[in-house]
């Protein structure tokens, strides 16, 4: 443990799990029936099918969510319509509109007839029993927003770096190079603290270029092999990131909650992680945070903050949107777990550090900086974001925390289909894996590589690609390569026979970031 720790603060290990594509009202809105203090739903909330006729064809928010097969719109363009109630155009986007949150049903119907019923429903508490228990036993934050009104990858980048480096969607070139910004991982490492990433499939955190450095490869651990053992032995690092299964197979279903994946599997995964943490000798020094990267197109009634939000680094997003990173995304679920948290805590908006500060994904980096007394903020965004260290409010840890959680409820009757085509996020993971093993030099990269891939093909590919990358990184380290280098295979090892290290199977490129 580094000597500059905040010795009066009881938390020594922060654990972060980022689930996929669900809004607060969709997942936790009906928890208000259990605790009226939660800013959830009552059933009076509604959206019109057409915002041009707002008084007709209203759809009220219901509690009938179960298995969701549809994948609602969650691009920057779709979110604009959901938040402001009008389709995006360059003329309209130049105006200062108020966020009405009235465009979810209209946007959904524009994608597929009947989808409005999907986005205008949430889960009954008994349908998500793991969250029902955790919300009752620990803390829920009912005013936490996605960092930007955009899709998965940009928001995930904010979680650990407080910026997306200008990304508002997938950027193929940047995926090849990796995103160059500094992350909270490096800040912790520089201060003498430890971090670890426990993954089930090749980790999405490798979108950060700097985490591909040889010196950080040892921080990546296979979840199945190491997580429970490290919990049991009290060997979890100071900052823990748990990554889930993003691919949906019959034998190993996805557990990231991304539609069309079964929330039942996500509930099982949260239960597994919680129970491993609860049994650890480190439990009394732990804070476990469950968040969702973005709302996935599902309705939420709380207006999105559109003023007073600073750009993290002054970068403007790509055309045609030219986004200035000056407003937040839709509200998402956040649950905080620690024996230092009082039962039934509801965390509302922050009290600072600025008058317009909000809880959003950069709040994680900002709070970690405070907990571990790190030297500096990453960007202007985490310097602005609210911090949540105050949720740890007890003078001593509780001794009544549940050791086990209830069994979740299965929601999907059919089995996963291994031969389905890849989703956009899964394609991005395959393309990222290709950069790690050298296949990005192929003529098939990026689009043809994934064009005919099934989910089963994608799983096989990313596993093999990451193994090639990690094995060669280890060889490079043992051969005395610069620890600040990134291992890049010279050939395309997925198609070519391996060469020896002596014949330059790989080259190590020293990072200039």
Automatic annotation (TrEMBL):
One of its GO terms (molecular function) is phosphoric ester hydrolase activity. InterPro entries: Alkaline_phosphatase_core_sf, Phosphoesterase. Its main location: secreted. It is found in: Secreted. Keywords: Hydrolase, Secreted, Signal. It holds the Pfam family Phosphoesterase. One of its GO terms (biological process) is phospholipid catabolic process. GO terms for cellular component: extracellular region. The keyword Secreted applies. Belongs to the bacterial phospholipase C family. PANTHER family: NON-SPECIFIC PHOSPHOLIPASE C4-RELATED. This is Phosphoesterase. It comes from Escallonia herrerae.
């Amino acid at each position: 443990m580094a000597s500059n720790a905040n010795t009066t603060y009881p938390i020594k290990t922060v654990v972060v799990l980022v689930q996929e594509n669900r809004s607060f009202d969709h997942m936790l809105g009906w928890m208000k029936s259990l605790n009226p203090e939660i800013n959830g739903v009552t059933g009076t909330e509604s959206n019109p099918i057409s915002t041009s006729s707002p008084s007709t064809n209203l759809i009220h928010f219901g509690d009938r969510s179960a298995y969701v097969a549809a994948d609602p719109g969650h691009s920057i363009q779709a979110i604009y319509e959901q938040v402001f109630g009008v389709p995006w155009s360059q003329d309209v986007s130049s105006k200062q509109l108020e966020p009405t949150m009235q465009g979810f049903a209209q946007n959904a119907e524009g994608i597929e007839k009947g989808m409005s019923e999907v986005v205008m429903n949430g889960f009954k508490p008994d349908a998500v029993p793991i969250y029902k228990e955790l919300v009752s036993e620990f803390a829920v934050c009912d005013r936490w927003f996605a960092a930007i009104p955009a899709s998965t990858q940009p928001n995930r980048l904010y979680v650990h770096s407080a910026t997306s480096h200008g990304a508002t969607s997938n950027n193929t070139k940047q995926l090849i190079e990796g995103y160059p910004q500094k992350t909270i991982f490096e800040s912790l490492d520089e201060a003498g603290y430890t971090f670890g990433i426990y993954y089930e499939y090749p980790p999405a955190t490798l979108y950060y270029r700097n985490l591909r450095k040889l010196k950080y490869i040892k921080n990546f651990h296979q979840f199945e092999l190491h997580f429970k053992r490290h919990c049991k032995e009290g060997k979890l690092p100071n900052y823990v990131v748990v990554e889930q299964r993003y691919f949906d197979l019959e034998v190993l279903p996805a557990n990231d909650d991304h539609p069309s994946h079964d929330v039942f599997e996500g509930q099982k995964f949260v239960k597994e992680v919680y129970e491993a943490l609860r049994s650890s000798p480190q439990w009394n020094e732990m804070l476990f945070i469950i968040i969702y990267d973005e709302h996935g197109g599902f309705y939420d009634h709380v207006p999105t903050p559109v003023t007073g939000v600073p750009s993290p680094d002054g970068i403007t997003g790509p055309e045609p949107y030219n986004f200035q990173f000056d407003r937040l995304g839709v509200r998402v679920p956040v649950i905080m777990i620690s024996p230092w948290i009082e039962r039934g805590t509801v965390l509302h908006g922050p009290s600072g550090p600025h008058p317009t500060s909000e809880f959003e994904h950069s709040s994680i980096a900002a709070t970690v900086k405070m907990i571990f007394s790190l030297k500096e903020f990453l960007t202007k965004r985490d310097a602005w974001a609210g911090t949540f260290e105050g949720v740890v409010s007890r003078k001593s840890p509780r001794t009544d925390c549940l050791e086990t959680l209830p069994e979740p409820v299965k929601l999907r009757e059919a089995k996963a289909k291994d031969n389905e085509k890849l989703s956009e996020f899964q394609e991005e993971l395959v393309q990222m894996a290709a950069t790690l093993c050298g296949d990005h030099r192929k003529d098939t990269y990026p689009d043809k590589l994934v064009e005919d891939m099934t989910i089963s093909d994608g799983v096989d590919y990313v596993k093999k690609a990451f193994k090639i990358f990690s094995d060669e990184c280890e060889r490079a380290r043992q051969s005395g390569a610069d620890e600040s280098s990134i291992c890049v295979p010279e050939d395309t090892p997925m198609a070519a026979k391996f060469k020896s290290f002596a014949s330059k199977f790989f080259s190590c490129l020293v990072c200039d970031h």
